[in-house]
Amino acid sequence: MEDLLALRIALRRLAKPRTSSRILVAAGGLVLLGAVLPVREAIAFPVTQAQACPVISGYVYYDVNDNGLRDAGEPPIAGVPMQLRNAAGGVVGSTSTNGGGYYEFDRNTSGALPTLTKEQAATFLETITDWTSQKTIAPFDPALGTLTSIEVTVSGDITSSIEAESLDSDPSTLSAEVTGTITVNVPGMQVTAIPLLHAGEFDAAPYDGVSDFGGASGHDFGTNTASDSATSTITDANTLNLFSGPGEVTVRAAARALSRTTGSGNVLNEIHTTASANVEVVYRYQPLTCLVDGTYTIVEVTQPAGYGDGQESAGNVTPIPGSKTTDLITVTLAGQDRPNNNFGELRASLQGCVYIDANRNGLHDGGESGIPNVTITLGGTATGSTATGSDGCYQFPNLPPGTYTLTETQPPGYEDCQDNIGTQGGQTANDRFYDIPLPANVNGRNNDFGECLSPTPTPTATRTPNPTSTPMPSSTVLSTPPTGSGTSTTTSGSTPPSGSTPGSSITGGNQPNPGAPSSGSGLFSRTPDVRVVILGFAIFAASGWIAFLAMGRARDQQDG
Hints:
The chain is mainly beta. Helix content is 9%, strand content 43%. It has 3 helices and 32 strands.
């Protein structure tokens, strides 16, 4: 019955026009009732734009082709420390190259500079809670100087009028509290103020049956205001950048009411709450001191790791003569920007060719053709392999300093000829260069492998064998000796010459094949001479005649 009565009273009070919220607390529950009124915009105070300073700038980069100029596509080198020095040698600026290899100087940062402030504010007027709103403030103007920090302070008030009625049948102590939260968001940061105020206590009698926030069981705590402020500081460079440059900075605020009364039993509350806030943004910076006209020297403080010193150029038009070991660029400032003061750096490389050594002199002479698609293998501090191009040449660029080897895979169809170590020096073996010293800024050229065309074999003439002559059979003459005498046998192809022993065998040469040389030995071992033939025939005829006479004589002796 008591809960129903409390709800009916709450509904009746809601019917009245009000400009604040009302909270009914019943059995420990909270119900927020109310509306949000519009918030008036605060005025933003613009920052006066200052005159920009002239800039001295440039790049540090890898000069791939070693021509002393920064060409399109050549890689930047980040994190290189740079200095700007005046004519007296004093350092007036220090910086490092960014991710794009870029650096710049536009002010004199030497000596202690004062810290100045520039304030911006955003005000959120008193409004029935809960509410959210946003405003804008002017950004920091980099032309004023170097932004070093930002302080963001939010100050807020929570104001509540609180009435309470104890609905409990027993005595109860009512306690009132004014509180809430005011939260402000700026780029990269959130700041929250929490106002809190104890508005008082009341010893309430048992519920008197009338919900009028009076009598013995009700109490009006009046209107009370709780205040609080909170400050946060930004020093992170990336966050500071969010407050710089063109475009306004957005400030968002939100207020939430949490005022209440508490008691030992059911309590009926009527609470009207408003909130207001003020946001102050303070830019702290060092004033800009522009570079004065005069002569300055840009210094690359340390050589980037893994690189050797290349050439410098002022304006990226012509390399500065003799600048490969200086790391200095001198410029004259006369009220205008001086861009493209560039520092070229070098990485080591090895290159050469595989070629046909046509005259076999061990040198890659003009006009001697390269051999494409030959594999060259790199070993040592860095490793890799490549193939020669259509011109027979190869290259290993962008190498760290160290000691290397180059090995050629012998191309098929060629005879290995003389190899020549390149300009960087080292040792030579068959199809291999080794112990190659390579400092950071050395481009080793002319590491050439010579090949020769294999000679074409000359055909060998086949000799036609001589025909073999057929030997003629020897004639055998048997003589019958006189009775009582021994038998004598002579085997001869001819009558033995005078003085020869009867019965001996003399084997002459083979008969020649007419018209062809004969093989073997004897009278006919060469092309027969006519005279030799006639002589032989005469000897043969004489031998036959003697034999004939001998046979006739023997017959006569027998007859006689």
